[in-house]
Amino acid sequence: MPEAAMLRHRALCQRKADTTMKHDSILITGASSGLGRALAQTLARPGRRLWLGGRKA
């Protein structure tokens, strides 16, 4: 995915995550690369617990 598209995608995901996430713990599979990694980076915030799984994690 081109860099500009990735930044736009992250901004949209973050906006939605900030308004819809009600829990402190989130499980993300496939977090060692690709979309799972981008999602983990986007959702990482103080006070949230991210449980990450992946073959290379």
From TrEMBL:
Highest taxon of source: Bacteria
Matching InterPro entries: NAD(P)-bd_dom_sf
Protein name, entry field: Dehydrogenase
UniProt organism field: Acetobacter okinawensis
